Amino acid sequence: MTMRIVREWRGLSQDDRGASIALGNFDGVHRGHQAVIGLAAAAARDQGLPLGVVSFEPHPRRIFQPDAPAFRLMKPEQLARALDALGVDLLYLLPFDEVMRELSDEAFAEQVLHQGLGVRHVAVGFDISFGKGRSGSPATMQAYGGALGFGVSVAEAVGEGGGDGESEGKFSSTEVRNALREGRPELAAGILGRPFAIEGEVRHGRQLGRTLGYPTANVELDDYVAPRFGVYATRTRLSDGRTLAGVANIGVNPTVAGEIAPRLEVWLFDFDEDLYGQVIETDLIAFLRPEAKFASLEDMTAQIDDDASMARMILSAG
Predict the structure, then answer these.
(1) What is the distance between the alpha carbons of residues 209 and 289, in angstroms, rounded to a whole number?
(2) Which residues, 6+ apart, have CB-to-CB distance to 274 below 8 Å?
(3) Cis ω for the linkage preceding 58 (within 30 of 0)
(4) Per residue in 171-212, pLDDT tens?
């Protein structure tokens, strides 16, 4: 990764200042986000500036709605890789702490963007809000840019509308989450521009899959939005770069006694290596069926065989 990650806005070196930046949360880095970043990239090219992205960690929604269900589409590591692939030079992953939360929109523009980051250009989405009370808007950002000496560009809504209900209105992180909760990973991928992926460390489970001949790699969902519980055709990237086809269950595995937290349990086809403690990333390609409680382990294994056959067919076609 050639992109630099900066986690502060005060006391920066000159190398970390003076960029053309895109401002937003960018959870998912979907096609609407990419349009905002594209505007910042155009200004960077025109003015010979580094390209930056300003985002926040933790996500402000986690602070303001602490009891809301998990909603993240990306971990910070995935965000960094996605932005690096888009040619971003600097990721400002700023702490959304007590100081940041109390800044007015004007103070944010002046203290963080102008004085702290020394931005030369700011690109925002048409619906951005910023500052305490979410009082800032594209219009106020343009006013602050005029007063403080940085350019501002505003991305229009990006989306598709075919009237068929498949993808209407603007691309948004909310629409991606809705698609995943409905068990429509293909629609989520269309908005993101790539499959939705769950990344995490492989942890020990109950070893039942290995006993039955279907060894699974188990990854907790943690802060990820919970996709519809059920079985998916998947592709998984290992830490060594290999990508393997598989079939996964997302849910709580109700057939087996004992409650577990929602997790991804992925069976990698034609693979039998120890992955415990390694970080893997699994793309959800297609939804096969809802999670079910079976009358017996025999019924469950028969269904797993059917699921695997279907997943192999879908993945080979793709």
Answers:
(1) 19
(2) none
(3) yes
(4) 999 999 999 999 999 999 999 999 999 999 999 876 666 667
